[in-house]
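Quick one, tokens below:
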């Protein structure tokens, strides 16, 4: 034990090795890894239920939905924090404890960042997917065949939207009610645009409206919405530029403009006799 305290780098090397094993837990099916994952999940289950729900929802929205994804997330939160907490016996607690708390929430930041980037990818490629659906429907395909055709186009739409549409098509082909399948599409992805798309398809099937016209209207609506959001972000740029303009650019500009005058003033002032200032 004293050896570990004298050489903490070996502890960190062991943690990194365990992290690599956990990272490849789909290929290395070891009871030891399962035991460590279960312990980590048990510790995370002690946190508030609202936080657990947030973790599971964001993990699903980020696209990490494998059976062991939640266990990997729990392990990446618990074990680095525990190791850094043990280092408080070597380092000062005022340093190790905040670092341990920070390391506990680093995976949350990673998952949240992944969720935002995945949502942005889906929202960006959704109008193009709807245009492809319109072409397929106009060519004579049904809505299910059009979904299957569009979901298979990974190169144009990206993997995120293709995966969501493939899951939707699979649920419908397995006999799930369409209204529930569209609702699960939104719950699984967390993208409001997909919720609007599912609601439009559900209403069209209930009211007997033309699928092609509904999908085309959804595509035009989403393109207009993206254009409006881009204009809104452009309008906010002037506000964001206030801080660097006034606190970074203006001081340098004032120095460049006023410095020669101030230097000349003091040089001229030095030639006057001191009695003039009495």
């Amino acid at each position: 034990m004293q050896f570990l305290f004298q050489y903490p780098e070996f502890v960190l090397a062991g943690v990194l090795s365990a992290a690599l094993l956990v990272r490849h837990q789909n290929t290395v099916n070891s009871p030891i890894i399962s035991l460590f994952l279960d312990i980590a999940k048990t510790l995370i289950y002690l946190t508030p239920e609202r936080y657990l729900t947030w973790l599971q929802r964001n993990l699903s929205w980020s696209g990490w939905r494998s059976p062991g994804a939640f266990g990997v997330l729990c392990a990446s939160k618990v074990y680095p924090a525990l190791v850094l907490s043990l280092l408080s016996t070597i380092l000062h607690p005022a340093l190790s404890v905040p670092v341990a708390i920070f390391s506990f929430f680093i995976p949350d930041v990673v998952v949240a960042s992944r969720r935002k980037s995945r949502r942005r990818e889906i929202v960006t490629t959704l109008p193009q997917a709807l245009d492809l659906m319109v072409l397929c429907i106009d060519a004579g395909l049904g809505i299910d065949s059009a979904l299957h055709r569009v979901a298979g186009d990974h190169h144009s739409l990206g993997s995120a939207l293709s995966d969501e549409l493939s899951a939707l098509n699979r649920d419908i082909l397995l006999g799930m009610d369409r209204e529930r399948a569209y609702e699960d599409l939104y719950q699984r992805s967390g993208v409001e645009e997909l919720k609007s798309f599912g609601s439009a398809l559900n209403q069209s099937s209930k009211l007997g409206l033309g699928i092609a016209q509904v999908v085309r209207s959804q595509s035009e609506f989403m393109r207009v919405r993206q254009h409006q959001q881009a204009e809104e972000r452009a309008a906010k740029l002037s506000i964001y530029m206030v801080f660097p303009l006034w606190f970074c650019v203006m001081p340098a500009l004032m120095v460049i403009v006023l410095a020669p005058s101030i230097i000349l003033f003091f040089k001229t002032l030095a030639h006057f006799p001191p009695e003039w200032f009495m």
